[in-house]
Amino acid sequence: MADSKMKDISIGIIGGTGGMGRIFADLFRREGYICLVSGRKRGPDITTMAEQCQVIIVSVPIGITAEVIEQVGPLMKKDALLMDLTSLKTEPIKAMLQSSPAEVIGLHPLFGPGVASIAGYTICICPARGERWIAWVRGIFTKHGAILIETTPERHDELMSLVQALNHLNSITMGMVLSAWGVDLAELRRFATPMFNTKLAIIKEVFTNNPRLYAEIITLSPHIGRIIELYGRALSELETLTKERDAEAFTALMEKRSLWRA
To answer: How many CA atoms lie within 13 A of 224 on its CB side?
Structure first.
């Protein structure tokens, strides 16, 4: 796309009043683009956005992403661009390709809504249809210092099942054990090591800051079945060795399974 036409682009963010949507709306506005945002209770409707914007970004909870895509997708033109910011990529991209004639790029910012800038943070990009817009997408994020990773939606979801689903599942499991134990949190903190305090902060984040988000990341992951199977198998092996009080075999198992084997 010619540079002279860049600033004529209007961008619409569905869910742009949320944390992640606001980050990208602010970024585009700083670049001089017209950016329309909509939330649950305010902003232009989907039809208006599709009529006025050449670029539409869907930034809504994972569980309703496909539904929103299916509403806006058919309203877009072939030379437009449809993107999403969801932490899963296979199903949203499939929905975009099936429902819209527009070019399609899946995005996953690998950071939370609390960052002041995208500089130094990673954005995963899954180009799915068309070549008209991809250079523009790369250019604007690179200009603002983001680190870009391009991959397929399938590979993205496989790796995110470990980076996110397994990671959050582990935090939730630890939180559930602490809750079932009935320990007093204030007393526990008095005995905590720095590493344990870090883990407690993560567990608190998962349980108190939008737990629905973490629940959807885990339950909607296409690989969660295998993760649960392997997690259960690992616990079963460790249970056997702890019942036998066999520290030597426990150590040997850790060394055998370590990703950091010498």
So the answer is: 15
User: Can you tell me the distance from the alpha carbon of 7 to that of 130, in angstroms, rounded to the nearest whole number?
Assistant: 21
Tally of CB atoms within 10 A around 27: 19
pLDDT at 244 over 50: yes
CATH value at residue 80: 3.40.50.720
Domain finish residue from 129, 151, 173: 151
pTM: 0.91
pLDDT in tens, 92-116: 999 999 999 999 999 999 999 989 9
Q: What is the mean pLDDT of residues 7-36?
A: 91
pLDDT band at 42 (very low <50, low <70, confident <90, very high): confident
Residue 130 structural domain: 3-151
Of 125, 151, 177, which one is at a domain's C-terminal end?
A: 151
Q: Are 122 and 142 in contact (CB under 8 A)?
A: no
164 Cβ contact partners less than 8 Å away, ≥ 6 residues apart: 87, 217, 221
Distance CA 108, CA 153 (A): 10
Q: What torsion do the CA atoms of 151, 152, 157, 159 make, to the nearest 10 degrees?
A: -40
49: amino acid identity, one letter: M
How many Cα atoms within 13 Å fall on the side-chain side of residue 220?
A: 19
195 φ/ψ angles, rounded to the nearest 5 degrees: -65, -40
Q: Specify the DSSP element, H or E, that contains 100.
A: none
